[in-house]
Amino acid sequence: MAENNSNSRLEAFCDGVFAIALTLLIIDIKIPSTTAINNTADFWLALKHTGPSLFAFVLSFIIILITWVNHHNSLKLVNKSSAAFMYANGLMLLSVVFVPFPTSLMGEYLFTDHSAPAVILYNSTFVLQSIGWILLSKASLKNQLTKNEKSSLAMRENGKFGYFAFTLYSLCAIIAFWFPLTIAIITTISWIFWLIYGITVKPGEMNEMNETN
Question: Strand, helix or coil at 26?
């Protein structure tokens, strides 16, 4: 029996990758076994020291969640696939599964004097992700994978956001050489913007397109 959704296996694979990436984020958040805890005050102090790691965890969880929502909505725009589309999708997923590593580094070194490499790597991950989005949108449009004209317009919009993100996070990665903490704050603000945009704008756009499909 033929599949109703030709991309069902692709969607299932992608959802599995996102789920694993989200799970891996929490692994490195723990009180070091070498930390001496002799009383309640020591325990609270040890928890306080995990603050940067918890911050990095929450930020990265939000980032991967936003990426999953955008990816989920993007796959609704297409009704078939191609080799170029799947490989571009793979590149985007590579950036997702890599997020836990720079997250761990940033949580450990963010408030130290040598935080620059961690912040640079963190933003470079989103540069890679933006390239994945650009290639994904290009592949879907070039191979005419979108469902209709409105879906094509939405995919072009995704490509524009990809270019914007590439420029933003490339600049952040470069400036982080000198101002890592400032860039970490800017990165956080940028993803808060994407979250607000996704909650307030995207759902309305997607509902309008779904009504026409």
Answer: coil
